[in-house]
Amino acid sequence: MTSIRDQIIEIICVASRPRKPDLSDENKSLFEVGLDSLDYASTIMELEEKYNLQIVEDDMEKLVSLKDLVTFVEARVAKP
Prior knowledge:
With 80 residues, the chain is mainly alpha-helical. The chain has a single domain (4-76), classed as Orthogonal Bundle (Non-ribosomal Peptide Synthetase Peptidyl Carrier Protein, Chain A). It is built from four helices and no strands. It has helices at 4-15, 37-51, 57-62, 66-76. The protein is globular and about 30 Å long. The relative contact order is 0.19.
């Protein structure tokens, strides 16, 4: 089973195709690693669908890095 982090990385990579963002520094802004606003919006929509979340605008302003996304999703996803 893949981790939430790995799943989010895959979502980001799919959203940003054909470019491949450099996610080696999980604290860097997603915009600094190669995402544009459309990639970011696609990533947020896919996270909402995959994890059955509602991400409001206030949350989006705080979700700027891979680490932010992982922490946000892990805190809201029920673990078996």
